[in-house]
Design goal:
Rossmann fold; two-stranded parallel ribbon; globular
Length: about 180
């Protein structure tokens, strides 16, 4: 899997397909591990959504893909939305799935999400105490799928534990859960 240094951080990415717009399985699709996630480098200190947005823009430029179709899921959707707002010329289309931006909702709508906070209550407490495995497990079992953490392959569990630091960074970043 290739990597590229973007904004001083080594990001891993992959490109599948040989021609066409980067859109579907039969065309070219680029995925990447954002900074601090999985195979990409984790620089010292806390990360911010501003860094993530800058990295995505620079990766699109580096690969010569803009304007392109972009899909973002969860916090990746937050990154894609912020990039679209700041650099719309990089986009042909944008598809987002479940951006954790509950703060944008009015008070009545937010009440419907009580108990469904992302990250779930307790996760940040565990991570702040350095209990990364317990924090990653609680996040996975309350957000992804209850009761199946132990069934996941060891490599997947290790990736979730490694990535747990970014849950903490996202929670501490004042810009992460608000809109521009």
């Amino acid at each position: 899997m290739p990597s590229t240094t973007i904004n001083g951080i080594r990001l891993h990415w992959s490109l599948t397909g040989e021609s066409g717009e980067p859109l579907a399985h039969s065309l070219r699709v680029v995925t990447y591990d954002r900074r601090g996630h999985s195979r990409s480098e984790r620089p010292p200190g806390p990360e911010s959504v501003v860094d993530d947005v800058s990295d995505l823009a620079a990766l699109i430029h580096h690969l010569g893909l803009g304007p392109t179709h972009i899909l973002g899921n969860s916090f990746g959707a937050v990154i894609a939305l912020r990039l679209a707002a700041s650099q719309p010329r990089l986009f042909r289309s944008l598809l987002i799935h479940e951006p954790p931006l509950i703060g944008l909702l009015d008070k009545r709508a937010r009440e419907q999400f009580k108990g469904a906070e992302i990250p779930p209550p307790g996760v940040i407490d565990l991570l702040e105490k350095g209990q990364m495995e317990a924090g990653a497990r609680l996040f996975y079992e309350t957000v992804v799928r209850a009761g199946c953490w132990d069934e996941r392959p060891a490599e997947m569990r290790e990736r979730w534990i490694f990535n747990a630091t970014t849950f903490l960074d996202e929670e501490r970043d004042p810009a992460a859960r608000r809109w521009i």
